[in-house]
Every structure is written in C-alpha cells, then in structure tokens.
Amino acid sequence: MSAQKTQHEVAQVFNQVAAGYDHAALRFFPFAADRLIMHLHPVSGTKILDLAAGTGAVTLAAARAVGPQGRVSAVDLAENMLDRLQEKIVKFGIRHVDLHTMDAAALDFRRDYFDYTVCSFGIFFLPDMVAGLREWARVTRPGGRLMFTAFAESAFQPMMDLFLRRLERYGIRSPDPDKPPAGMRLADPARCRELLDAAGLVNIDVTTEQLGYHLKDESEWWDVLWNSGTRGWIEKVPRAELESFRAAHLAEVRPLCNGQGLRLDIATHFAGGDKPPAPSSR
Ligand SMILES: C[S@@+](CC[C@H](N)C(=O)[O-])C[C@H]1O[C@@H](n2cnc3c(N)ncnc32)[C@H](O)[C@@H]1O
Questions:
Q1: pLDDT grade, residue 173 (50/70/90)?
Q2: Would residue 246 be called left, alpha or beta, if left means φ above 0 and alpha means ψ between -120 and 50 degrees?
Q3: Which residues does residue 118 pair with via DSSP β-bridges, in sequence order?
C-alpha cells in the first residue's frame, strides 16, 4: 500500500473516532501522556513538539509542564481530533499551544527548533518509522530529547486476539499476514531501541510500565474498540453484519469479567533518546 493511501486511511479513521476518543474507557491515553511528560521532565519555558497529538492528552500535559513562557506545537493528520483539542484550549484559556494539520513524517518546521519532540501512540502509524524519527530529530535542537510511547506485547490481551480472530471469521485480515496491526509494531522493546539507534540518537532509554485498569464490563471494551484505531477494522465488517459481529465478540469477552469488571492491560513502552550535541566549533 502506498504511504499516501495509508496516511489517508489513518486520517479517515481518526476523523471518525474523534467524538468518542475522550470517553472514560480510553483513559489510558491521558494516563500515558502524564507518564510521558513525567519521564521527559521538560524545563519550564521550553518548546515541545507533540506529534500525532490527537485530542491533546500529551499537548495539554506538556503545556502545563512548560508553563506560559514555553510553547507547545501539536501536529496531527486528523482535523476532527485537532478540533477537539482546540475546544479544550479555548475552554481552559490556554495561549501557548498551536495546532497544525500536518504529516508527522514531513514536518514544516525549521531544523533544530524544538527542545523536545514527543509522540504518544502514533509512531507505529508511520510507514517508515526510522525516516520519521530522523525527521523528528531534524527539527529538535542538538542535545534535545525525543520520546515516544508504544504498546507492549500484553496490551489489550486476551481480548485483542479474540477480536482479531473474530474479524478473520468475517473474512477480514491484514493485507499482509506477516505484518502485525499498526499498534503492535513496536511490541518488542528491543525494536524501540533499534529504531532510536538507527535514527542516530544517543542516551537511549526504554522502560515499560503497566497502565492498565478495570473497565466496567465488556460494553466498555467495545467503547475502546469503536473509538480508537481498531475502528478501521470494524468498518470493514459489512453494515448488515455489524450487530451480530459485536454480539458474538462481546459474548466471548464476557466470561473474562469478574467482580471488579474487565481487566484492560495497557503495558506501555516509554522510549527516548537525545539528539547528539552539536560538535564543538573549536
Ligand atoms: C492513537 S492516537 C494518539 C493520540 C494522542 N497522541 C494520545 O496519546 O492520545 C494516534 C493519532 O496519530 C495520528 N496520526 C497517525 N499518523 C499520523 C501522521 N503521519 N501524521 C500526523 N498524525 C498522525 C492520528 O490521526 C491520531 O490522532
């Protein structure tokens, strides 16, 4: 599939899910955003670039961290996601954030501009992740830090495997069976490290944290599937069969619920590296 087609499809899916993306069932996004900014620990008054910003979980956490003397630039392909972020910016009266509808793989910013560049749960949508990271490094100042998050192997399991198998029963599978779904491309932490290394970054660090919680029941699991990247897969189910698909999948998930609800595993990698400092002129 061409990079442009992939990009178009990704934007289409996220434009569709924007209205439900901030539902409580998907609170792992703001949880991860807060942890990402905690790991990054940005200096007040600095400039942060938030790529694949979505509805702004990281953007808002970054804006709080750098304070009004700093600046946060948020980039996303999906305008509906950025519209939600714009609403929050207005609601909270934030003045040091700007939004850009732009491809994270081809940035319209000058080199060495940002102090930090971050991306939460977005890098795995890029057709060429190393090229993407090099582009992110280009716009980051020498010595500045880049960080991204990605889902680890156990994330969303065992429900995700049941969902993918159910899709297969409806004849829906990845065009390339050897390629995992986008969200699982960086499940191996060694792969995160390799990417940062291949992009020329130094002081590489990859840590994994469990950010999971209990969903109320299987209907909240559907909320997660319907309002995130997996919506693209659900849209391939013929409309006439969607209700039977949903009912069959939720019936197989229901037995996983216990007195506390349905455990949602959100094992997450936090991966970071520094752009090497500029060589001394002496
Ligand atoms: C799973 S959401 C994550 C949003 C946000 N970072 C968060 O943690 O809540 C992924 C986002 O990546 C965006 N995205 C995917 N590919 C992109 C690209 N090439 N350039 C910019 N944004 C992209 C999508 O539109 C979507 O908003």
A1: confident
A2: alpha
A3: 50, 147
Residue 173 CA, ligand 1 centroid: distance in Å: 22
Q: Give the start-to-end residue ranges of the domains of the chain.
A: 3-274
- Write out residues with Cβ below 6 Å of ligand 1: 7, 10-11, 14, 29, 33, 52-54, 57-58, 75-78, 81, 103-105, 120-122, 125-126, 229
Helices (H), 44-118: 57-66, 79-92
- Give which of 44, 47, 79, 72 is closest to 58, Cα–Cα: 72
- Measured between alpha carbons, how far is 39 from 33 in angstroms, rounded to an integer? 10
Quick check: 77 and 229 in contact, CB under 8 A?
A: no
CA distance 128 to 64: 31
What class has domain 3-274? alpha beta
| Cα→Cα distances 142→21, 72, 131, 260, 274, Å | 35, 18, 18, 48, 8
pTM of the model: 0.96
Q: How far is CA 66 from CA 55, 179, 277, in A?
A: 19, 38, 22
How far, in Å, CA of 60 to CA of 193, rounded? 27
Mutational pocket test of ligand 1: of 5, 8, 10, 231, the residue with most ligand atoms within 8 Å of the beta carbon: 10
Residue 114 CA to residue 48 CA, distance in Å, equals 6
Q: Read off the pLDDT of residues 208-267 as tens digits, 9 standing for 90 and up.
A: 999 999 999 999 999 999 999 999 999 999 999 999 999 999 999 999 999 999 999 999
Alpha-carbon distance of 118 to 58, in angstroms, equals 8
* 194, containing H or E segment: helix 189-198
